[in-house]
């Protein structure tokens, strides 16, 4: 095809660019390569196990990550998320199984030859080099000509809005700026995959929130695949196209942030992400994909819908988010589920209030409402008898 | 007032233990040798006016007439320079190894480096004679191995002086380099590799520059005392080893020419001031970079 090829590439480049720049803040609904059986994953973990001595850090893990994804590995410390990232970067070997990058097994590729760059938790900026030289470091290793390096560094500095700081040393700039330099440095070589190890961990909350959106913008602009490691569930939910919740070297669930929040597959995930009420009882069929949950001696059974089948008498856990439970002083009419209780505690968060309602059996259910009225006009207070209600579809019925 | 007192302590220390003795030595270097006690003239007993009139730079002029002194200075500089270099060559890998060792081992390794200080310096140098002499342990071991058929002549040569200096001053080289390497974040090396460095180039581009201050400090800590070293060249070096410390000792005790010996010492100090000032500036710059 000879001369046609560059044209074709250019065309694809243009098209890719147009498709990849959704104007909305949220993820493009069309972007879901994981649902497309023809799509080839960029990274493929196949039955990967990693052991440190007797300790199993990663336990027979299989996972696909696709091009242009912003993939979050979420879990408590020691769950193996950092080990996974270090295996991708090449700093840890794989004990069993294979990791493929763009279809190639990368087991024998040393870190300096992988088309993967990493942004370190400590940023790992070279203190003896200026910001310019830090960003140029990787480009110089590739022996690029001086003018190309200059152009690329300038582009990166512009991307992270640090043009004025090129001559400074890392200790002469603020923490937030250092974080952006680290990002620019890891993006400078145009990696296929960028790994971010707790990239915002060292920033204070306000700056972190701003930076999250900046990260997303940069990810969209550059079209690089990002894999982020974090223990902050809010961060994972905000930035990621998909989130993998990990525990003890295993992936418990992989789904979009909405999928994880609304449809957790286990009590562990439901509990790890956000606030949740877990009601344990036994299931009893109540029509098509509807179940009654027997949960207390003197309580009416709860009606809940579930796509997952449960047999009669099977133990089950109903997970309901507090914001899906409403609270009233009067007995609600025609509610699918309504229970009376007493306000035990009120957590006032400004925009929201969470009511801890104690039921006669001693269980405590959290109900959250938006504070649409001013605090002084709130009509529910401590010790008040109240009714809480929720729909059959509000919760998720879980087996484990 | 309190700040003044705080500053006054080190300055007072410096004045009493350095400046005043130096002025005395300087004064002696301007005097003439005499058969008296003390062995120079004029002294304070002659009255202040006579004292001032009796002082001249004769001894310094004398140092330029005999090329022994000039050769001794040069040879001292050479020996100090090369032994500093060799100490660095031996010390850096040791410091690097210590900094890379498992956390629980580091305290022990550090102790092992400092341990020789628990024994007298002189005894350790005598021990080296036992090792390096023609019938010494080293030669016997090499003969036993069959590597050599004739004992090597090491003792009483410059090589023995190098061995002595490297051995005695090694901890001064290791400790500052270790301190610099220990402070270094391991993820910097990983970052360098991640950005395309091989192990070796990561070492040259990151580890060496970041331990530069430790290297400089260690080199000065070895070079400065090595330049005026007297015990090692006189015990391990032969008649061919020319070092200014030895010359100074001979002028002072054998010739009893205190004024010339003092002149030698003053020049030695002037030579040392340059590296000392450089060392100070390095320390200051380091403090600023960290602050």
Automatic annotation (TrEMBL), chain B:
| Classification via Gene3D superfamilies | MetI-like
Q: What is its main location?
A: membrane
Where is this protein localized, as stated in its record? Answer: Cell membrane
Family label: Belongs to the binding-protein-dependent transport system permease family. CysTW subfamily.
Q: Name one GO biological process term.
A: transmembrane transport
Spell out the GO cellular component terms annotated for this protein, sorted alphabetically and separated by semicolons.
plasma membrane
Offer one Pfam family short name for this entry: BPD_transp_1
Identify the InterPro entries for this entry.
Answer: MetI-like (IPR000515), MetI-like_sf (IPR035906)
Q: Would you tell me the protein name for this molecule?
A: Putrescine transport system permease protein
Residue intervals of the ABC transmembrane type-1 domain: 73-279
What species is given as this protein's source? Answer: Sulfitobacter undariae
- Membrane topology (UniProt): Multi-pass membrane protein
Q: Which domain of life is it from?
A: Bacteria
Keyword annotations for this protein, in alphabetical order, are: Cell membrane, Membrane, Transmembrane, Transmembrane helix, Transport
Q: Which SUPFAM superfamilies match?
A: MetI-like
- Spell out the CDD domains in the cross-references: TM_PBP2
Record-annotated membrane-spanning stretches: 79-97, 109-132, 159-181, 202-224, 261-279
